[in-house]
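Below: protein 1.
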Amino acid sequence: MTEDLSPAERYAAARIRAAEQATALAPFREMYEFGLDPFQIEACEALEAGKGVLVAAPTGSGKTIVGEFAVHLALAEGRKCFYTTPIKALSNQKYADLVKRYGAGKVGLLTGDNSVNAEAPVVVMTTEVLRNMLYAGSQSLLGLGYVVMDEVHYLSDRFRGAVWEEVIIHLPESVTLVSLSATVSNAEEFGDWLDTVRGDTEVIVSEHRPVPLWQHVLAGRRMYDLFEEETDHGGRGAGKREVNPDLVRLARMENQRTYNPRDRRRGKMVREADRERERRQRSRIWTPSRPEVIERLDAEGLLPAITFIFSRAGCEAAVQQCLYAGLRLNNDEARRRVREIVEERTASIPGEDLHVLGYFEWLEGLERGIAAHHAGMLPTFKEVVEELFVRGLVKAVFATETLALGINMPARSVVLEKLVKWNGEQHADITPGEYTQLTGRAGRRGIDIEGHAVVLWQRGMDPGALAGLAGTRTYPLRSSFRPSYNMAVNLVHQFGRHRSRELLETSFAQFQADKSVVGISRQVRKNEEGLDGYRAGMTCHLGDFEQYARLRRDLKERENDLAKQGAAQRRAAAATALEKLKAGDVIHVPTGKFAGLALVLDPGLPAGRANGHRGFEHQDGPRPLVLTVERQVKRLGTMDFPVPVEPLERMRIPKSFNARSPQSRRDLASALRSKAGHIVPERHRKQRAAAADDREIARLRSDLRAHPCHGCDEREDHARWAERYHRLQRDTRQLERRIEGRTNTIARTFDRIVALLTELDYLRGDEVTVHGKRLARLYGELDLLASECLRDRVWEDLGPAELAACVSALVYEARQADDAVAPKLPSGKAKAALGEMIHIWGRLDALEEELKINQAEGVGQREPDLGFAWAVYMWASGRGLDEVLREAEMPAGDFVRWCKQVIDVLGQIAAAAPRDNSTVAKNARKAVDAVLRGVVAYSSVG
């Protein structure tokens, strides 16, 4: 090729090669066995040129190469690099990768519960650790040249996202920022913001998957391609994607009615023949069982596979189903290697705990090449599963969606059982962004030629909607940034109130809000033009039709108001009747899911809720706890009683009754049926409507009839135009309020927080008081509550286990609210302290409400949850794992995770507690030692 070049061209090419060899990128590229992709080279060159970079690329595309180049540059320049990740597991994984490359002497690790070589030139850490270092003005920041923010799209996270923005805003200007993100649809907007707050930032977006992804649907015995073969294999390219017509026919056939009994035109024999034919067709369509899916993938060479099941119990059940089906994916040699690795990694776990942790069942699955992976598992178990999967010794993993959040665990295939998941409030369809994140695991670079995403056929599936999920690129990055109390005192301490306010105005949240105002203003102008047209359409030659339309609206609103008042009166009467109920009353629940006979176990009055557990005060009236005749124990609300309820009968509730015991519920429900099953409740009579006697309604109707426009032949046409005018005018006013509300929103929230902190003497103008300095060292959702407890000496003289129980209320949140049974609490001082914490929270909550600090917007203090207090108290008191997990009714992984969060906050309290005549700091350190034992103490590193 070079022979065809002229001498001048050969000289120019040689100059280019020499220039490339002189860059830091050249030796870095030689560290890898494969060539770098264009987007990686572009990002690395921008970094070497001194620019910050935002790299948005699909999962598995190798964007972390850019982060590793930042590490390479830092070491070459004699500067430091911090590599941040959103979760500890990712930090541990990246730490291991970098140690393998650069040696343990040059790489450190800092997470909430691990500190390894913290002063190394390269330190891997969770994002929260870096945020805390920035606020504390840590000496470790000296010489910092680069910060890599892996999975930066986490800033959309409702609970933790603000931390990413805090770091980006507060990093020194001299630090070069490397932001690595999943593919997002507004990368340019995010890049514009980074350019504003960090200076020159190059945005590199890659849609290319290095391993092509094929999309399939598995129905019955057949695996269908989602898209027609000639079109871009489910693609990510520009080709038009057509849904496989076989799938469309399958969906249409399933949706056809098999038999209509009202169809009289066909004879009985014809109908029976049609039904039989349809039955035969449908026999080919079913959702394969989990073992069948794995066997099918194994037969087609599509293992290893990750099957996403949006339930921890479902993941565990899937492993058991595969074991019962006799699946064996490993040969004898693989089984031997699995046992060796597992025994080595779990050697530190005491033998008596193995049975409690389900070790032997877990090991049997691993030896067969099958495992579960979810947040309820012991961290050590999860790490072993990850290691064995990467080594090819586990070939089928059943996982919850948390596995898709960045852990380096790619597979050849990904299976989605359903396209619906529980989001904490309801069952909702997964979004295109979630689908992309999950299926992004399919296809191992350097191993697989192609990856496969398999969706299991479900009744009522719409292939077109699935194709939309697979082909849509709508995953916008939305800021979740909100000021917190801790953030406010730290900012004021460093910058003063005025400068802090200006800094918060530079957040991505405010950037997006300001940008959206432009579009809203444009819509307001369009609406005003529309209003002129509607006004012309409602003009009446007989009089002022706008006035007539207003009379009609006033009449309608008055009728609606009276109807609402009537409903409110009925609710009040129902609430009054509920307040009179006593334990042992037999009632008839008139409506709702639990309609029918029920026995009151607890009337659920606010005054009777002094134990302080979740739902401890019922703002919406009494919430009686009842036993239904169907043996269910449920806490009902006023919505279940639209009409007043009267006791039908009285029953004695045995002292031995246990709401958690199925046998107890069965016996008492049987007694309830025997006692009151024959009673027929009286029907509630409807009362005369208030509108019939209302003078205001009578006046409005009279004025309406007397108005000149009432006699217009085109009255109803004018009324339709008037209604459109009114709706558009209302919408326009709402838009104007939105413009007003979105301007300076973050700063206004900050002002309210500062007002509350000033009221409580945490701030005095630009001065941070001694209480404020204590708050500055407390991080977490309930930072202010923790500070107030220290200030009021609530935790003085508590033993280590009692203090751990109290601190658990600051961190724990039940996965699902359970009002049926009050949580068990330690007695004595711990119970009194927990009650005092609830009292302080109530005072803070009232103050927040007064100052319009809104928890719904992610600002303020949620109610403490006492659901973990008894479990951590037992553990810190030295009880065995078996007993604690049995009492807590909690998976080992959840127990360990909550314990580690308790340890983290105990450490903060030990550092922040007053030193004069206080036992809290000393007992907090003792509590850390008491909790950090056994399963909780197993190291996650090395």
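Below: protein 2.
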Amino acid sequence: MRFGLLGSFVVEDAGGTPRQIGTPKARALLAVLLLRGGSPVSWDTVKTAIWGESVPATARASLHNHVARLRRDLDEGGDRIQVTPAGFRLRVLDDELDVTRFDRYVCRARTARLAEDWAEVEALTGSALALWRGAPLSDVPLPDTEREPFVRRMEEARLQVLEWGYEADLHLGRHQGIAAELAELVAAHPLRETFVGQLMLALHRSGRPADALLAYDTARRTIRRELGVDPEPGLVELHRRILTLDPSLTAQPATEPQTTPPPATDAPTLDLPIPHPIATDPSADPHPTPHELPSSPADFTGREQELDRIVGELAEADRPDGATVLVHRVSGSGGMGKTTLMVRAAHQIRERFPDGQIFLDLGGMTTMPMPPESALGLLLRTLGVAPEEVPCGLQARSAQFRSLIAGRRMLILLDDAGDAAQIRPLLPGAAGSAVLVTSRRRLVSFPGVRIDLGALPDDAARRLLASIAGEDRVAAQPSATTEVLRACGGMPLALRLAGSRLAARPAWSVQDLAHRLTSHGRVLRELYADDLHVRTALQMSYELLLQESQEPQGSYESQEPQGSQASPGSRGHAGPARAFRLLGLMPSAAFGTAAAAAVLDCDERSVEDWLEALVDAHLLESPAPGRYQFHCLLQALAVELAEESDSEEERALAVERLVLWCLHGADAATARLAPAARRVPLDAGARLRGPFADYDEAYGWYEREREVLVAAVSLAHEAGLHAQAWSLAASLWAYVRLGRNDDWLTTHTVGLAAARATGDERAEAWMLNGLGNQVLNTGRPAEAIGYFRRALRIHEGAPGRDAELSAVFNNIGTCFTDLGDHESALHHYRKSLAREPESCATLNNTADALSHLGRHDEALDVLDRAEAIQRATRDLVSLAIGLRVRGDVLRAADRGAEAVEAYRRALALQRLGGDQHSEAVSLMGLGDALADLKRQTEAEACWGKALRWMERLGDQGRSVDLRKRLAGA
């Protein structure tokens, strides 16, 4: 057997075939025993190592079950793991554990170093580093108290080996290719002075003494700042010798190793036995055929189109005319099934690659991604290169890999790539072999298929859930199943974990799980099984983004928010990580850069860069250019991270900035859509945007931002911003009246609750008035009167409410008009005029009522009175409406030609003002007047244009009427 702890947990048989260890707890148990290197381990030690402080009462029985599974998975009888009353013991042979082999290489390298056999040091340190595949035990669920001591020890040993390897390179005169590598190490470990000295010497020998001196100066300042001391004397002396151009620093040819190693007091000791030389098998195949693909899940569901596309391209990979290696990439957020899809595709096409299939986890989303040089070391070992024959240095290894794979047809699956730089050295040099890559980043610089995996369609998501939880249970409660699917957002990992939780709990119904998933703030806490957590899978991308954004080069985190400083609770100032967290507080809808900039209090150009960085990291979706949206589970993560990282004050300010952006934008848009409408007074000095250019721009803004605007009313009310909530609802009236009746009802219902929460009766009446208009607009005038009378009761008896009372009486009159009771309508219009005699809106309605009563001359007199006021006040919007009503009155009085003229005058004014809805109503009347005059072609042209606008603006009632007119023409 072979066991690997230096990276993701690996168990293989002697032939290199992976063994699947069934459960996470079984993996943890095996890892704990391997960490003890074959020594006995007590029951209590194992319990604590696996469960930490939360050891269940059933732990002992559970461990017996895990041992039984391990014995079965290892398939070696029962003598591999021994269980006694005292505890456990794992039998591990000398060469089976990669940690043991690493320690042996380290011990032999130390001996060679003492003997100054630098060629041997180089070979042995290279072999030791090739065993590393990533962060140790990166995928085993162990408490930090168990994992961290081992990780610290191994990381320190790895850094020691790196120091010895570069020391050997410098002794062997190989300084040209290592300066860049050493610079990266110095940046990662600025207080490790050995790396600094090696970098200085490599730069000096490469003809760059100025850079060497700069490296020292940077290190000196860092050490003083962090530790308050000067560098070690050896580094200071090296600095002096470089300054004086000491000729002894010139590279010397390597010397023969000494037969008797001199004592070396500065060499660190590892307290390891000196191993015997590892024998090599002369009969071993020099060109082994690896078969490393993991197994493909039996319940693979969905992704048929993506699978067919990848397999189709792979089938063409061996075409003889190909000179370019195609790199087929699948990207997506965590949990979207990238690896599952690629493994499935690789299995389907593996027969076309008879020279082998390689699977390599690059750990791109871990805290320690596998360096390309280490990855190449593993690839070369897989291809049969002996450890001592693996060259040092990235370029040498890459060249050897390309040479070995040339002429062979192999399939290479590189899983979890961090970026293009990590995988570029791992590519074959010519066509014939194929490369598959999974990554959470969009890797766009390679030829080949590139697929961005999103959520599964509803039917595939349901099939996946049913395949795990059982078709009968899923079918029994279709509504609950829909809730579960919605909560999982089509994410395969979430669906698998939800199904697994149902399968593990036969007593649960689907409704039970749906309730747990939809309870506020619980969804991420519920989507887990064993050591698999949706939150962990998603958060890896965020943590990498956070790590990158805190780096000084090109750092977004170094920028201050515009106009304010981040709160003390924020981690960093401005940047994509903070943007991810705070934007999660927005409503679950697509949003634009301007809204995001308001939330983040930053300029739009910077915000757009951050949003695109989040899209590249698959933490945000971009359904259209300039529009962005969260996956529901990523938004849940963002909210949790904001609660953890950003102060309550900063979160509240972010929400308030969004609400104010919505409020001021809606007010500016209403000024274009309904210029004569009563608007909520806003602080003119605090306006967040200027006016819209015209009706089209305002309406287009409303259309783009509709979901955010509507949801922002509830968001404001829930955040305690009650005054802003009802004000925003009132400001949306001009838009929602254009066929958005559901939005109208939603916003004004919440607005009414918010108004009542403020104790502002005037605001409450405003919302009741708006709800009455919504009900009236949906064809229920009798019900609407109830809302208006409730508003009336609030205003009556209160001083200074003439304007409000006039508006309410006018609306009640409109209800009676729709009911056909024109006498009652006229009565209420006159009550309105008694309070506001010069209300042109009420005068227009009064004329309409008089006309319906056959009193056309009186109606025209009222319109003349209104027109005089409109012209005196230059109220062109109301004048246009009055001219349209005049057309209606003239048409009812059989004065068709005059009616046509009135409608055309109304249209001319409406076109100047850009009020398209009013213009469409006038076109409708003009068409009717032209039809009365038997000018049918002109009438149909007017009706057709009016219908197009009514459909676009969402006025369904008038659209139906216009279709009837056109059908009967």
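The longest strand covers residues 411-417.
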